[in-house]
């Protein structure tokens, strides 16, 4: 209920006397204000829903007009707000990358130290790093030299520069895979469908030489040939290395390379919700208790009467 404040002024001492009279507003006036507020909220909700629906329909129309097949969505282990990456799958995905993908693709933003505590122990990461020869230098004579890798080193690229990469791949430049899941729409589903989607072209469809048909690639033709096959590698944990398992594991590994803080962000979000949700309730209650009267008050000023009246 609102309150009314009656004020009188005095010409002599310029003072304002304030009298608060509670419960002066009518119930009908409050009901009218409440209905108006509800109407505004409903209108705003309808407008927001319509705008989101239009944006979704527009994006679907754009995807439908493209020249590649629709992606099949998969139930990834990290999709939910409280779900984390499957670190066993991430470790297997690293094995797929090292034995299959690393021959052409680089991971410029991933260092061996990033693997510690995620996919490997510190000793395992040191052993992996020592297996690679890293270019270093110059030495005292000004020459570059090779040395075993260390935890602080980044994973080496298969080619020294882009021109060498193009020359070794019939003019096509293999992209760096560090952020590939963020650089493609619906990145994880795109990578999985691309790796498992190679097939013979439709009858009467012919592509250029050195290109391979894949309906999930824009245009349908891609320079990279099919890379994954059943039992192509042997997992260290004994998991059966089917084609779909290889694609799933390397996709989850690339998800981790693009978002190494994925699990930490979700863990921090849960803590923030647990802290700020009660604070929001308490703040709203305090606002209603302390400010309801002040926000709903009405102030009426009356002209002081003259002495001769």
How would you portray this structure in words?
- Strands 2-1-7 form a 3-stranded mixed sheet, covered by helices on one side. A two-stranded antiparallel sheet has the order 3-4.
- It is 42% helix and 10% strand.
- It has 3 domains: 41 residues; 151 residues, Orthogonal Bundle (Cytochrome Bc1 Complex, Chain D, domain 2), CATH 1.10.760.10; 41 residues.
- It is elongated, with a radius of gyration of 33 Å.
- The N terminus is likely disordered.
- The protein has 309 residues and is mainly alpha-helical.
Describe the SSE topology:
Blueprint lengths: L2 E7 L6 E7 L4 H38 L22 H13 L22 H9 L2 E4 L8 E4 L13 H6 L12 H4 L3 H10 L15 E2 L7 E2 L20 H16 L3 H35 L1 E5 L7
Parallel strand pairs: 1-7
Antiparallel strand pairs: 1-2, 3-4, 5-6
Helix pairs in contact: 2-7, 6-7
Task: Write out the strand line-up for the largest beta sheet, numbering strands in chain order.
Answer: 2-1-7
How is the CATH topology of the largest domain named?
Cytochrome Bc1 Complex, Chain D, domain 2
Order of helices and strands: EEHHHEEHHHEEHHE
Low-confidence stretches: 1-25
**Structural class label:** mainly alpha
Shape: elongated
Binned, the helix content reads 40-55%
Rounded to an integer, what's the Rg over CA atoms?
33 Å
Largest sheet: 3 strands, mixed
**Tally of helical segments:** 8
Q: Give the distance, in angstroms, between the N- and C-terminal Cα atoms.
A: 36 Å
Mean pLDDT: 86
**Percent of sequence in beta strands:** 5-15%
How many domains make up the coordinates? 3
CATH domain class name of the largest domain: Mainly Alpha
């Amino acid at each position: 209920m609102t309150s009314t404040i009656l004020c009188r002024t005095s010409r002599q001492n310029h003072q304002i006397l304030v009298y608060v009279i509670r419960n002066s507003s009518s119930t009908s006036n409050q009901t009218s204000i409440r209905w108006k507020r509800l109407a505004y909220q409903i209108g705003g909700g309808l407008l927001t829903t319509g705008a989101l629906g239009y944006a979704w329909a527009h994006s679907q129309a754009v995807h439908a007009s493209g020249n590649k097949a629709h992606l099949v969505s998969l139930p990834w282990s990290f999709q939910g707000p409280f779900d984390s990456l499957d670190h066993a799958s991430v470790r297997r995905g690293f094995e797929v990358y090292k034995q299959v993908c690393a021959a052409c693709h680089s991971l410029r933003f991933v260092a061996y130290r990033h693997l510690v505590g995620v996919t490997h122990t510190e000793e395992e990461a040191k052993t992996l790093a020592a297996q690679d020869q890293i270019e270093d230098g110059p030495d005292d004579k000004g020459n570059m030299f090779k040395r075993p890798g260390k935890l602080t080193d980044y994973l080496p690229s298969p080619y020294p520069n882009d021109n060498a990469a193009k020359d070794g791949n019939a003019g096509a430049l293999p992209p760096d895979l560090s952020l590939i899941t963020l650089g493609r729409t619906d990145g994880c589903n795109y990578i999985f469908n691309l790796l498992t989607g190679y097939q013979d072209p439709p009858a009467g469809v012919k592509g250029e030489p050195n290109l391979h048909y894949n309906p999930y690639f824009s245009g349908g033709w891609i320079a990279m040939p099919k890379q994954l096959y059943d039992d192509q590698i042997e997992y260290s944990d004994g998991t059966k290395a089917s084609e779909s398992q290889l694609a799933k594991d390397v996709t989850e590994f690339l998800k981790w390379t693009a978002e190494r803080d994925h699990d930490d962000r979700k863990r921090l979000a849960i803590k923030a919700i647990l802290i700020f949700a009660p604070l929001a309730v308490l703040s709203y209650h305090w606002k209603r208790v302390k400010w309801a009267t002040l926000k709903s008050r009405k102030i009426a000023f009356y002209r002081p009467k003259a002495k001769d009246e």
